[in-house]
Structures are given as structure tokens and as C-alpha cells.
Amino acid sequence: MIKVGPVVFWIIGAITLSPWISAPIALLLGFLMASLGWVPQSIQPSVWVKKLLALAIVALGFGVQINVAWQVTSDYFGLMVTTIVVTLCAALLLGRLLKVDSITSHLLGSGTAICGGSAIAAVAPAVHARNDQIALALASVFTLNAVALLIFPLIGRALALDDQTFGAWAAIAIHDTSSVVGAAQAYSDEALQTATTLKLARALWIVPLALLSALVYQRFSHTETQTRVKIPLFIVGYVVAMLVSSAWPQFHELYSVTFGAGKSLLVFCLYLVGASITVTRLKAAGPRPLLLAVVLWVLIATLSLAWLTIRTG
Fold this sequence. Notes:
Blueprint: H1 6-14, H2 23-35, H3 45-61, H4 66-75, H5 77-97, H6 102-123, H7 131-158, H8 163-173, H9 177-187, H10 189-203, H11 206-221, H12 233-247, H13 252-275, H14 279-284, H15 287-312
Helix pairs in contact: 2-13, 3-12, 3-13, 5-6, 5-15, 6-7, 6-11, 6-15, 7-9, 7-15, 8-9, 8-10, 8-15, 9-10, 9-13
């Protein structure tokens, strides 16, 4: 097997910063690197994704006006709450039907309802999830993220969805923030702004969900657990960026450059996301948890698309 050093890995990744490489291609390129065993052991793509994605999202905040953000969030607040509740309830009911343990079902429901891996990571300690349960949930959600990034723009164009509708649909129906903004970026800049704003507003539900999960677990397991839940700093940074760009519009050209840099960095992040996917990790998801994840995903995607179609129609 050919060994690739860190320098070569980063050079190939740098190609994704060019305007000719789209988000889906960057993801596939990273997956190809992982499949060929060309990701050096000294590099941990998931760690880099967490750091760089936070910077990319903050940079994207400079391209959104606060009044637009407020309008988008208020317009879709009912849909956001409804889909979260329906998904969590469906996860527990379908989990029992498919004989998936309740904690894994709750992790999958949390990841599908709110924001993928981040929600799973926040809820896991609240319910004292085992490492194998966390791994199953993450692997299942991670697999569907990659699929969504590729097929959502195709579905959106096939259905002739307008930019705002597609952005809202992506924010509701795709798990992780990276795949949401990746799919939206492949659609249009307006879809990207809508998707990013709504997705980050949705991510704030991590806080009440983790607290509620801890309370329920404590009650039914008869154990005392203390859970500290932190709002991700990139959400705070995104809001601050919106406030700055709205308060001092005279620096519009600087904001545009920063927004463009954020989009390029996002594509590079998806290269790293792809480099984190391995065949072993996909197999680790197992058939039943993966089936539950797929059913939940199809459910939330179908319901949200139907609601949005009726609303715009």
C-alpha cells in the first residue's frame, strides 16, 4: 500500500480551496483518500473539522443581515419545533419496533432532530451512553450526512425548489452543520444563508434537549447525574458576525471577502469530513441502527418538504 505523508495530504486538500472544486467533490476526494489508506495516522481529520468548521461558520455570519436572520428563524419556528418533537418520539417508538436499545435510539433521534454529531456528543454523557452506543449513532448519522450532501441538491433542482425553500429544507432534514451548509452552498448563495441561519438556530436546541435527557435518565435509572451543557462558541461567533455586519454596513466589501473565504474553508472542511469516513466505520453502524437512522431521516425529510411545499404553494 502506498503511504502518503502529511505534506501530500494537505497539498491535495489545498486543491479543494480552488473555485473549481465543489463541496460534493471535496467530500468524495476525502473519502477516496481514506479508502486508499492515504490519511496519515498523525492527522486526525475529525479534530481539524471541529476547529476549521467553527471558523468557516463565523465567517459566513458576515454575509447575513440580522433582520434577515430573524425573519428566517421566525418564519420556520413552528416547523423546527414540530420536527424535533416528532423525530424524538418516532425514534423511541421505531427503536422498540426494530429492537434497537433505547439509549442508541435516543442518540439517533437527537442527532436526526437537531444537528447530528454535535447533538449526539452533547446528549451521550447526559444518558451515560456507552462508547459502542455512541459509535453506532455517530457512524449511522455520519453515513447519511455524506449521502445527503450529494443527493439533496439534485432533488432540490429536480423539484425546482426556490433558494429559500431549499435552504430551509436542508437545515431541517440534514443532520450535521457541515453537510447542511455544503449542500446549500452547492445550490446557491441565498440557500446557503437561509440554511446556515436556520441550522444554527436549530442547534441551540441542544441545550434543552441535553438537560431534559439528563433529567429523564436520572428519574428512570434512579441515579444522580450532573450534566454541564455548553452552547457551541461558533454559534455565538456567528451571531456576533451578523450583528457587526448589520451595525457597520459601510465595510460591505470586507464582509464579502470574509464570506467568500468562509465558503472556501467550508469546502476544505468537507474534504476532511470525507477523510474521516472509512469502510470499517460504515460497517460498524450495523443494520438495525442504520435502518432506524434511515427511517427517521426519510420521515423528517418527507414531512418538512411537504410542509414547505404546501407553504410556498
